[in-house]
Amino acid sequence: MEDLCDKIISTDILIVGSEGAGGHAAIEASKSGADILIITKGKIGQCGASQMAGADFNVDGLGGRELGFEGDERDSPDLFFETLVREGLYLGNQKMLEKYVEYAPKAMKDLIDWGMKVYSYESAHTEEMARGIISSGILWVATIRKKVKELKIPILEDTMVVDLLTNEGKIVGAVALDIVSGEIIVIKCKAVILATGGWHKAYAFNTGPEDLTGDGVAMAYRVGAELISMEMVQFCPVTMVWPPKDKGSIILYIIKEVDPFGKTIKLLNKNGERFMENYDSTNLEQSTKEIVSIASQLEIEEGRGSPHGGVFFSLKHTRKRFMDMLIKVANHRIKNEMKDTRYEFTTLLPELLEMMKTEDAEVGNGAHYMGGGVKINENTETTIPGLFAAGECTGGMWGAVRVASACTEAGVQGKIAGELAPKYIKTVTQGDLNIAQVKEIINRMNGPLLREVGITPNELQLKMHKISGEKIGLIKNGKDLEEGVAEIEKLLNVDLQKLYVSSSKNKTLNFEFFRAIELRNMLTCLYLSAKTSLLREESRGEFYRKDYTFTDNDKWLKTIVIKRKDGKTEIKFETPTITKISLPSGKLTYQEAIGVATASLKRD
Amino acid sequence: MEKKEIIKMSCFRFDPEKDEKPHFEVYDIPLNGAMCVQDCLTYVRENVDPSLAFFINCRLGFCRRCLVRINGKSCLACTTEVQDDFTVEPLLKEKVIRDLWCESL
Ligand SMILES: Cc1cc2nc3c(=O)[nH]c(=O)nc-3n(C[C@H](O)[C@H](O)[C@H](O)COP(=O)(O)OP(=O)(O)OC[C@H]3O[C@@H](n4cnc5c(N)ncnc54)[C@H](O)[C@@H]3O)c2cc1C
Ligand code: FES
């Protein structure tokens, strides 16, 4: 083994990813006294989606009261659970959702005990329950980082886990690459908690950070773990498409959700028409996230978009005095009241508002949240013994709409994994590594470094983005999906095998080298997402097919589960796990179904 | 003043494996809409020289890992807009690992 790698490390539990889910899991697991090691592709508190979150956390109104917030006495854990099931359009896993509701106050209490500052508590509107605790991603991850450092939990930063190691179907370790030194590290462990987030970077237009390339999901798939709901990809409307420096920012989406300011906004197509009138004439721009994104995407695809592939976000109809007041209020609230230091709020927003006195902004749908991923149960166990998963890299809990906070999801599942992985490791001994498996992983990883000609990572990335943008985007249809599946399959089977590091063979900080590894993961996720999208012949929540616009409760109250077996993908259809709420029947139009889901919780 | 269409980025380069000492490389960057330093660096990595080492993560001022020196002043590559020729160097030259990436980041 020593001759295959640069370093061998042993631990009990390896946690992959250091943020909302991974960091929380590590802190919880450390209570047990087990040996743990965090490996993260960035630096703790400075990577992943968590730092960028709004961030709102959810607890039911009674739980909120117990935590010392205003709360909402009309609410209860049961009502919160019902909302989640109903608004997830019944595709969610009810056991997992019950656990979400039960653990939400516990995970929240941890964060408060660890010192996380809270900005505000969302008060109850007339029909809605108050369930939101508002902080910021920056404050959240700083809290976790501080605690991890305080507890002296071992951590390898700027290090990427490349693949998992199994023996007789059980987790025995992992292979990792130190991005800075280029060293290959083999880790021996009894359990792994995956907390690697989404695969945002598989799409050219997305809202996530650079490290989200679906690594955890793809590596779980490679060792035979079941994945679920890979077709559920949420796109965030009103994401900045232009200019380049602001691309991917969701600041205008956040502002659109702020009352009463949000109501003054108009979304316009290139003919200056307020197109939401044609899609939801009652709620207009205040319609659900799904309807606003589908409407704007249809405008774009039918040739009525803005020059850079979005629609216009307009405030030009308001008076200059109004805009001046708005800028003043926003500045005051952000800088003086919240003492918020986030660039998007302190700098970008005032700049944009100033610009919008005379010009419109261009906004579109960025890939934002992955509803699918590694299939876990309510105890965060995957289908591979010793493999746990938490946070956005998991799938199946929400169903067809991410109804409530993903920050809470990360905390809840991180906490559960941190409680249960230490119990699991007591029941097993460290298994032997399979040398052939380690060899194969390292050889494959080094392939692009050894090749002298072929396709560069930049070229492959461009091809991938073209396909994901044109064929596997927000609005799907059978023909495009079929082509998308075939084209991504070709990239995986042909192009990927020719990938080569073209510029420098120095393994230190070699972007081409690690992007080559990530490309395989992104392509794997995209392939599985396209394949499952093609199978789902309906539209439901965040999943929209132009050729099947009905929400079909008779045929499609089923989740799609996919895994790799003997080198092939194997697909199963499973009825969602039910506890208290039985599943509806009948075929509804997409709007009718979504109308049932009133989107009372508006997520960022 | 007329808006420039192409600006020059003078970029600190150093690969300890092959370079005896650091040098500057000048790249032509086509400006296409408001761009920040990070967009220029990405342009080079995607179109000219993929070996250029720098770090970006969030692209929107959250992670603070893209700290570099622009015309001598430390700033975030992803929030600093450029409209004219500029020089980009690592935050701490004495701690450079490769190109713009140094130890403390
Ligand atoms: C811009 C933006 C705003 C958002 N706003 C909100 C909001 O307001 N409310 C809300 O509820 N949700 C929001 N979300 C979603 C929410 O932030 C995420 O779902 C949640 O933070 C995910 O947490 P996580 O710990 O699972 O993953 P992440 O925070 O994404 O962390 C993933 C971790 O895994 C590491 N990693 C990845 N691959 C590897 C590998 N191969 N080896 C080692 N480490 C690896 C990463 O470096 C990182 O440390 C937002 C998302 C975005 C992008
Ligand atoms: S890339 Fe994160 S602050 Fe610049």
Give the SSE layout:
The complex is a heterodimer of chains A (604) and B (105).
Chain A: E1 7-10, E2 13-16, H1 22-30, E3 36-39, E4 56-58, H2 61-66, H3 77-87, H4 94-113, E5 120-121, E6 132-134, H5 137-150, E7 155-156, E8 159-167, E9 170-178, E10 184-188, E11 191-194, H6 215-222, E12 227-228, E13 233-242, H7 251-256, E14 266-268, H8 289-301, E15 311-314, H9 320-337, H10 343-355, E16 361-370, E17 373-375, E18 387-389, E19 394-395, H11 406-425, H12 435-450, H13 457-471, E20 475-476, H14 478-493, H15 511-535, E21 544-545, E22 550-552, E23 559-565, E24 568-574, E25 587-589, H16 590-596
Parallel strand pairs in A: 1-10, 2-3, 2-11, 3-7, 11-18, 17-19, 20-21
Antiparallel strand pairs in A: 4-6, 5-6, 8-9, 9-10, 12-17, 12-23, 13-16, 14-15, 15-16, 22-25, 23-24
Helix pairs in contact in A: 1-5, 1-11, 3-4, 4-11, 6-15, 9-10, 13-14, 13-15, 14-15
Chain B: E1 6-13, E2 23-30, E3 35-36, H1 37-47, E4 67-70, E5 73-76, E6 81-82, E7 86-90, E8 96-98, E9 101-102
Parallel strand pairs in B: 1-7
Antiparallel strand pairs in B: 1-2, 3-6, 4-5, 4-7, 8-9
Task: Please give a structural write-up.
The complex is a heterodimer of chains A (604) and B (105). Chain A is an alpha/beta fold. Chain A contains 16 helices and 25 strands. Chain B is mainly beta. Chain B has one helix and nine strands, in the order E-E-E-H-E-E-E-E-E-E. The mean pLDDT of chain B is 94. Classes of the chains: A alpha/beta (604), B mainly beta (105). The interface between A and B is large, with 38 and 37 residues. The structure holds flavin-adenine dinucleotide and FE2/S2 (inorganic) cluster. Residues 16-22, 39-42, 47-50, 52-56, 160-161, 195-197, 207-208, 211-212, 215-216, 250, 368-369, 391-392, 405-407, 410, 603-604 of chain A line the site of flavin-adenine dinucleotide. FE2/S2 (inorganic) cluster binds at residues 56-59, 61-66, 76-78 of chain B.
